[in-house]
Amino acid sequence: MSLHAGQKKWGIGQVILAICVLLLVSTCVFPFLNVIAISLSSKSAILRGDVNFIPKEFTCLAYDVIFKDQSMIQSLFFTVELTVIYTAMAMMLTILLAYPLSRERLKGKRFFTLMVMFTMYFSGGLIPTYLNIRNLGMIDTIWALILPGVISTYNVVIMKSFFLGLPRELEEAATIDGANDFQVLFRIILPLSLPSIATLSLFYAVGKWNSFSDALYYINSRSLQPLQLKLYYLIKGITSVEISMVEGNAADAGRNVSESIESASIIFATLPILVVYPFIQKYFVQGATIGAVKG
């Protein structure tokens, strides 16, 4: 039986590689399918252990409870606002730090690079950081969730490496035409850096969207609790009044809500970032690999 033109026969190595990739994908997909199935199954079916990857006794009660909980909706909008502000500030500072470090004419470049790299290996620790934030008056404010981790050294290194890989001739030509450093950066360098910018923006956005420990330490007001912190409290059994009343355990503060509510909350907290990802997926691999080639 002859092969079609251009069709290649798979070897043993390619088959093994495909199986390994399929297994890795399965370890990511199947748990997510299980969470979806639990969120759409009845409480009795979950307690019987009948739910695997297909919902049993289909019901949307869990999502109805989540969407009727005003505190969850408020946390969703606050988390979106927090993520957008944080990502914009983080990318601005990352670019403004990485670009000078990528230029050989920067005076003291070796010293500044050493100071930046030093933070990758050493930090002040949790208690000194908390005391510093408290002394700055940022406890129970949105800035306590933004400023302490507004820049990542790892992302600065990736952005710096990307800038180093861009043609120097473009910058030299713009300088000869009278462009200053800011004009070169915003009119030439950044338009050519969209893949790296999109990739690092995704890193920052996902990191902030999934974080809850900083809010756990610094936030007391319910109005400033991000979605992941609400999910943390929910899984730990510290439920909101609305969910407790629907679940029928308002008088029992130590009782966890049902697994369907927990699973629906996980989907509710994960879905927004999954919706954004496909729009920048085409930049993701290119941005991550280009920045890692040259250092």
In summary, what is this structure?
This protein has helices spanning 12-39, 43-48, 61-68, 70-101, 109-121, 126-135, 153-164, 168-176, 181-192, 194-210, 213-218, 227-236, 241-247, 259-290. With 295 residues, the protein is mostly helical.
Characterization of this structure:
The protein has 295 residues and is mostly helical. The chain folds into two domains: 7-59, no CATH class; 62-290, MetI-like (MetI-like fold, Orthogonal Bundle). 68% of the residues lie in helices and 0% in strands. The protein contains 14 helices and no strands. Helix 3 crosses helix 14 and helix 12 (227-236) packs across helix 14 (259-290). The longest helix is centred in the first third of the chain and has 32 residues, at 70-101. It starts with 11 loop residues before the first helix and ends in a 5-residue tail after the last helix.
Q: Which labels suit this protein?
A:
single chain; 295 residues; mainly alpha; MetI-like fold; 2 domains; globular; disordered C terminus
Q: Please, how many domains?
A: 2
Helix content: 55-70%
CATH architecture of the largest domain: Orthogonal Bundle
Work out the number of β strands.
Answer: 0
**What top-tier CATH class of the largest domain fits best?**
Mainly Alpha
Low-confidence stretches: 249-256, 291-295
Structural class comes to mainly alpha
Which word captures the global form? globular
Strand content bin: under 5%
Mean pLDDT: 80
Total number of helices:
14
Please name the fourth-level CATH homologous superfamily of the largest domain: MetI-like
**SSE run:** HHHHHHHHHHHHHH
